[in-house]
Design a protein that fits this description.
single chain, RRM domain-containing protein, RNA-binding, Nucleotide-bd_a/b_plait_sf, 5-stranded antiparallel beta sheet, alpha+beta, RRM2_NsCP33-like, extended, Alpha-Beta Plaits, 4-stranded antiparallel beta sheet, RRM_dom, 25% helix, 333 residues
């Protein structure tokens, strides 16, 4: 009530009163950062406004719902809720199971009744539940959560050649000497719940991850283990490596005009069609020497022109002459 009276007195002292419609007209063009700063300033000056802001924010489940990943396959909904009850009253909590097999999918959700409880849980985002280090973030941030940070590739490590006896707790305890761990676990088979011989550790800083890689002592569970960046292929094109001794064709020098390997048709590489061909110089190729012929040159013999007139049908115009100048006689037709 005192805050309300103070606000009324301030308004009366100014002598100017702005209607709700006029305030909306002034507020609508403002950008989100400007509105956030304005509400934060008013909330810090007037506790009643701060309570109203909290009430509106708490009513939205997006500010109270957590996504919890990295759960053990045998973690139940009751175990999950018990792990988060220390932060406040829980409205809803459950582990998500596969609809077909009925087995856990390794993650779940926790919804608190108050937004303050959610903020407390986020301050301690990593929790050891059933021997696995589970990590939580706001459900509205998606499945990646804090793991979407741009430097994740420099903080997340792959741990290989693990003994079957090494548990997630042993793994986390061993690597905690290099720095604070954000997330980590041994990879377990979903069906048998047995170790698959490798795991992952994500530090909160890239410096801690580099210290773990540079550490010369890499023995855990009586074995020499492998420690490297989990995203070791970052920056590569994704092409499969070539076998030893095989040189990719792309690295060999190609002469201009040769056909591309593996192709039966198509123009040669490095050619642009159509091409202009330079004409040959006449002086480049001299005419051959003329050899004199050993035989005399014979002139052309004139022949009489042949008449193109066709003979008439029937007897020839002149009677043909036979032996002793006797004419031929034709049999009667």
């Amino acid at each position: 009530m005192e805050d309300l009276k103070k606000r009324k007195l301030d308004e009366a002292g100014n002598g100017d009163f702005t209607s709700k419609e006029e305030l909306r007209f002034l507020i609508e063009p403002l950008a989100k950062p400007q509105l956030v700063d304005l509400l934060a300033k008013l909330g810090s000056q007037y506790p009643s406004i701060a309570e109203e802001i909290k009430s509106i924010a708490s009513a939205d489940p997006a500010h109270r719902k957590l996504f919890v990943r990295g759960l053990a396959w045998n973690t139940t909904s009751e175990t999950l809720r018990a792990a988060f009850e220390e932060h406040g009253e829980i409205e809803e909590g459950a582990v998500i199971h596969d609809k077909v097999t009925g087995k856990s999918r390794g993650y779940g959700f926790i919804t608190f009744k108050n937004m303050e409880s959610t903020q407390q849980a986020l301050k301690a985002s990593s929790k050891l539940i059933d021997g696995r280090l589970a990590v939580c973030n706001l459900a509205c941030e998606g499945l990646s959560g804090t793991s979407s940070a741009p430097d994740l590739s420099l903080r997340k490590l792959y741990i290989g050649s693990l003994s079957p006896e090494v548990t997630s707790e042993m793994l986390l305890h061993y690597f905690a000497r290099h720095g604070e761990i954000e997330e980590g676990s041994v990879a377990y088979d979903r069906d048998t719940d047995e170790s698959r011989g490798f795991g992952f550790v994500t530090y909160k800083t890239a410096e801690a991850a580099k210290k773990a890689i540079d550490d010369l002592e890499k023995v855990l569970g009586g074995r020499n283990i492998i420690v490297k960046y989990a995203d070791s292929n970052k920056g590569k094109t994704g092409q499969p490596p070539f076998p030893s001794g095989v040189v990719p064709m792309a690295s060999l020098p190609m002469s201009t005009g040769y056909m591309q390997p593996g192709k039966s048709s198509g123009p040669p590489i490095n050619y642009n069609y159509p091409q202009t061909v330079a004409p040959y110089s006449a002086s480049s190729y001299p005419n051959p020497h003329t050899v004199p012929s050993p035989y005399p040159t014979q002139g052309q013999i004139p022949y009489p022109p042949v008449s193109a007139k066709k003979d008439q049908h029937g007897f020839p115009p002149t009677q043909p002459v036979g032996m002793n100048n006797y004419p031929y006689y034709y049999p009667k037709q």
